[in-house]
Design brief:
By secondary structure, the chain is an alpha+beta fold. It has helices spanning about 10-20, 65-70, 85-90, 100-105, 145-150, and strands at about 5, 25-30, 35-40, 45-50, 50-60, 75-80, 110, 115-120, 125-135, 155-170. The chain is built from 5 helices and 10 strands; from the N terminus they run E-H-E-E-E-E-H-E-H-H-E-E-E-H-E. A hairpin with a 5-residue loop joins strand 2 (about 25-30) and strand 3. The structure holds flavin mononucleotide (FMN). The site of flavin mononucleotide (FMN) has 18 residues, from strand 3, strand 5 and helix 2.
Length: about 170
């Protein structure tokens, strides 16, 4: 898939819609070269510190968590209609148990601006460098959100990634 550099907010409404359904594919690669991919459904894109920022929320139980902590970079890859199966598999299997790239025959290439890999076939990609992260503070959470999303454990870590590059295909 040929992708060209675009502004961070290119087709933002479309990306946010796909974030909600079916979800986006977040990949991260350790300095050792090992990579993993998972699905994210909760995130925001906006401006912080006068920079374009992608905030991704990852639970400590995810294998991907240690990849982002190690590399301080991640990519977010927007799937197209033909990649729904990837979302199904990557959102319900852990890289601890399966090499998802090999299993799904997903071709990957390091990003232009970060070492984390991008998924070659995805029509839109965000390349992000972590500028800050913090863990949710349970005591500060709204009670309904705590009950519906946590039940006392596995509180997300929020990664604030500067969008160093955004790349889209002609058709996206
Ligand atoms: C639609 C959808 C959205 C998801 N959103 C998130 C998310 O925002 N954060 C998160 O930590 N897990 C999320 N998950 C769960 C992970 O993608 C899933 O647990 C995955 O298997 C983790 O893979 P890993 O252990 O290889 O990192 C989502 C799953 C689906 C199906």
């Amino acid at each position: 898939m040929i992708r060209n550099s675009v502004p961070y907010d290119h087709q933002l409404t479309k990306t946010l819609s796909l974030l909600q359904n079916p979800g986006l594919l977040l990949a991260s690669s350790k300095p050792s070269g090992q990579s993993n991919v998972m699905v994210i459904g909760w995130a925001t894109i906006g401006i912080i510190w006068s920079k374009p920022i992608f905030v991704a929320m990852v639970r400590p139980s995810r294998y991907t968590y240690e990849f982002i902590d190690d590399s301080k970079t991640f990519t977010v890859n927007v799937p197209d209609e033909t990649q729904r199966k990837w979302v199904g598999v990557c959102g319900s299997n852990s890289g601890r148990d399966m090499d998802k790239f090999a299993e799904l025959k997903i071709a990957i290439t390091p990003g232009h601006t970060v070492n984390s890999v991008t998924l070659d076939a995805c029509p839109m990609v965000y390349e992000c460098k972590v500028l800050h992260y913090n863990d949710l503070i349970p005591a500060n959470l709204d009670g309904e959100v705590e009950a519906s999303s946590y039940g006392g454990s596995d509180y997300h870590r929020l990664y604030f990634g500067e969008i160093l590059g955004a790349f889209a295909s002609e058709s996206y």
